[in-house]
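#struct-help
A.M.: can someone run this one for me? Single chain, 143 residues.
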Amino acid sequence: MSPGLYKNEKSLVLPLMTSTIFLFITGVAFAYYVVCPIIFSFFINSAPDSIVVMTDISQYLNFVLKVTFAFGVAFEMPVATYLIIRSGIAKKEKLKKARPYLIVLFFILGMLLTPPDVFSQLFLAIPMWLLFELGLLISKDKI
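D.P.: on it. Structure tokens below:
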């Protein structure tokens, strides 16, 4: 490895760390302020009128932590895409050709990581897809 290449790789550490932290916090905020209120209103409105909805605080906190963590990790998609292409694991063209399969994978992950309502699944899968496309835009193939 030439010293110039190492220097170039070292200069990428700060932007990657900054964007990783920013994207994770954005994902957590999106989940907490957008997705969780929609999910809870759906759950409350789907309960019959004769039943009073009373959430257990430990179950509520467990649910919110899982959802916000899942969204925080999912919002790391541009960094993951960039690192996969930059490290040479996959080429940009190969990921573009695999796009339909990856979109299906994003929807499957949305199904597995969120509660069983369609809104939260869409709220996870669509941002993952868009952030994957952003990762493709910002990345260049390794030379």
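A.M.: thanks! Residues 1-5 have pLDDT under 50 and may be disordered.
D.P.: also worth noting: Residues 40 and 85 are 38 Å apart (CA to CA).
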